[in-house]
Amino acid sequence: MNKRFVVRLSVEERERLEALIAKGKAAARRLTRARILLKADCSSLGPSWTDLQISEALEVGVITVHRIRQAFVEGGIEGVLLRRPVPRRPRMLDGEQEAHLIALACSKPPEGRCRWTLRLLAERFVELGHVASVSHETIRSTLKKTS
Q1: Engineering a disulfide at 62: which of 27, 55, 94, 118 sits with its beta carbon 3.0 to 4.6 angstroms away?
Q2: 33: closest CA among 64, 76, 73, 75?
Q3: Whose CA is closest to 38, among 69, 73, 83, 63?
Q4: H helical segments located in the chain
């Protein structure tokens, strides 16, 4: 089988992974990735298992094994074992805008209404010029977070 991403571990990398597994005090995800790399190792010390054999033995998907091979070839052992930070979405409203929204929500509702709705709050918030546009969902999540 022609593999595009071939894992060849050095002696130091192999010892590091074996020590990590022997210690057993790491996250399960990290231990599983270490086991996959050890089984996929095509060097003289490794068993050189196929992706299917590894996936059946470690009860992970074949695509997972492929992705870990790829991550190792492209980023080295640190690229596999260290978790990448997940990019967070930027907040829609800053602290000052949230304060204005809360003040608006606590104020008297418009004429002819007994209470504020999320859509009314969103419309009024834009009318007051605090933001160019805002959805009622943003209003809901902001008010839910602060209440």
Answers
A1: 55
A2: 64
A3: 69
A4: 11-23, 28-40, 51-58, 62-81, 95-106, 118-127, 136-146
Structure tokens at 138: 């943003």
- Spell out the residues 6+ positions from residue 57 whose beta carbon is closer than 8 angstroms to its own: 39, 49
At position 94, the amino acid (one-letter code) is D
Full-model pTM: 0.64
CB pairs under 8 A, 24+ apart, for 15-22? 16/77, 17/77, 20/81
Measured from the Cβ of residue 146, the count of other Cβ atoms closer than 10 Å reads 11
Residue position matching structure tokens 């930070």 = 85
The tens place of each residue's pLDDT in the chain, 147 residues long, gives 457 899 999 999 999 999 999 999 999 999 999 999 999 999 999 999 999 999 999 999 999 999 999 999 999 999 999 988 888 988 899 999 999 999 999 999 999 999 999 999 999 999 999 999 999 999 999 999 866
